[in-house]
Amino acid sequence: MNRESIVQLLESKNVQASYHRLKILExxxxxRTHPTVDTIYRSLEKEIPTLSxxxxxxxxxxxVAKKIVSQVTVEENEVRYDYSGSAHLHFKCRKCGVVxxxxxxCELLSRKEIEGHIVDEYHINFxxxxxxxxxxxxxxxx
Amino acid sequence: MNRESIVQLLESKNVQASYHRLKILExxxxxRTHPTVDTIYRSLEKEIPTLSxxxxxxxxxxxVAKKIVSQVTVEENEVRYDYSGSAHLHFKCRKCGVVxxxxxxCELLSRKEIEGHIVDEYHINFxxxxxxxxxxxxxxxx
DNA sequence: ATTACTGCAAATACTTTGCATACCG
DNA sequence: CGGTATGCAAAGTATTTGCAGTAAT
Lengths: 142, 142
Known about the structure:
Chain A is of the alpha+beta class. Chain A is built from 5 helices and 6 strands; from the N terminus they run ααααββββββα. Chain A has helices at 3-12, 19-30, 37-45, 53-65, 131-141; strands at 69-75, 78-83, 89-93, 99-102, 113-114, 117-129. Chain A is globular. The model of chain A has no long low-confidence stretch (mean pLDDT 92). At the A-B interface, strand 1, strand 3 and strand 6 of A face strand 1, strand 3 and strand 6 of B. Chain A binds a DNA duplex through helix 4.
């Protein structure tokens, strides 16, 4: 996604497109790796030496409040951020640590109500060993 | 569940049934409210004045490692503990904060594999407004 | 000029670690 | 006795807050 679209995305949600916000959202849009606050900060501080962690926290709070990005907790005790595209599930590999997006046609995803409760958000997360790590282990065994 | 069964549960998993472990697991089994570390600590310190937070952390770590209880993160940044009974989903009400267990016959729950990755754990969490809070709001509006 | 954004430093919250003591088989 | 569990205090990590400075409208 180019810079212009990101500015438009921010403005369409009534978020002032400051330089830092632009860079942080751009990072999230272009790195679909579910980064943590720290990862985002470390990646951007090279390019923006004046950036502070507080700004990363502030910006992410705004983006989450405006539902432009979402918080993901695939692993307990580790908040990650994800640019909210279409509905999807997450799978985290215990071996390599990569978080995969899973697009699965699941009846639960379209539910507006469950057992009488009104659903406005859901998180479906899986953990295990990813395809690559399974294959690597199999190759190693030969 | 009575004390004797809890001792047996611990011993069947090769966990020494010390007094503190017994009390902590007993709390989890009898309070199916998905408590946080702090809730567990505060509830038990009245009865066990010498209890320390470290012991609660240590014990929960052992219980999770032995898969007697599981960690639940229905809300980002808030680890809760749940005595692992049968497979189920969680729903957290944004208004009253209660975490409900949802038993739903979902195809995803029985999956051992998804898109080639091997699944050994899953977390399915919903958020929204619970039945009670919806009804309370409706009654208030009249 | 007024409002909003940023960044530092301090404060708070949560969790882990090291080590000495106490408990249990 | 010997290994394990416990508890305190300290360290570590993550996040929030207050406030002063800066930029934007």
